[in-house]
Write a structure and sequence with these properties.
Order of helices and strands: HEHHEHHHH
Strand order of the largest sheet: 1-2
Number of helices: 7
Structural class: mainly alpha
Number of strands: 2
Radius of gyration: 18 Å
Shape: globular
């Protein structure tokens, strides 16, 4: 059971790495065709996370990340970590499925395609940034499952701050592109956590 939970957490990392590789292949042609694109400090910092995560996945698959000795605490940590990682995977795949239904393919980087609609349903009706929520959950899930202090430090000191910075920059771009439509959406749906009580837009 203990090993199965660790395999589940690693499986989430492997699946995320697979779509990362596809995204990296597409990134240049997609950005060249975009009507709006942005590359700055936020984008560079966030882009670094991609090869780091791919490297981490390789280490996990090759079993080069230390595995805690089996026991009650380790089993509980593995169960919690696997749950977080799989939840992150689910939210990310839900986001991908939502955009595919709107005929928009998610790609790496900050850009707005010519045909890009503002997606506000499905995973994007749950939180405004489901892909970034998924990334954070997978990172923390792996750190908890393997009880790895280095991964926990990377999550707290790098992944979360960089994702937050990246999101703020992206949302300024989306506000500029979609105006009042995005502002109403941002008022109604939480950035990374769902609103417990649905808010209604202010009356005109």
């Amino acid at each position: 059971m203990y090993k199965l939970l660790l395999y589940a957490a690693v499986g989430a990392a492997v699946i995320r790495s697979a779509w990362l590789l596809i995204g990296l292949v597409r990134v240049i042609p997609v950005h060249l065709r975009a009507r709006t694109r942005r590359w700055g400090l936020a984008e560079v910092l966030a882009f670094v996370e991609l090869p780091v995560f791919l490297g981490l996945t390789c280490l996990l698959v090759l079993k080069l990340v230390p595995v805690p000795a089996p026991g009650g605490v380790s089993l509980l940590a593995a169960a919690l970590g696997a749950t977080l990682a799989l939840a992150g995977l689910f939210v990310s795949l839900w986001a991908i499925a939502t955009t595919v239904r709107r005929r928009v393919i998610l790609d790496a980087g900050h850009f707005v395609k010519e045909e890009h609609p503002l997606v506000t349903t499905g995973a994007y009706g749950f939180v405004r940034n489901p892909m970034y929520l998924g990334i954070i959950l997978i990172w923390f899930g792996l750190a908890v499952a393997f009880q790895n202090q280095i991964l926990l430090l990377a999550c707290a000191a790098y992944v979360v701050p960089v994702m937050w910075f990246y999101i703020r920059v992206e949302e300024r771009m989306m506000s500029s592109e979609f105006g009042a439509q995005f502002e109403e959406y941002a008022h109604r749906v939480g950035r990374l956590l769902p609103h417990l009580v649905r808010t209604k837009p202010d009356a005109a």
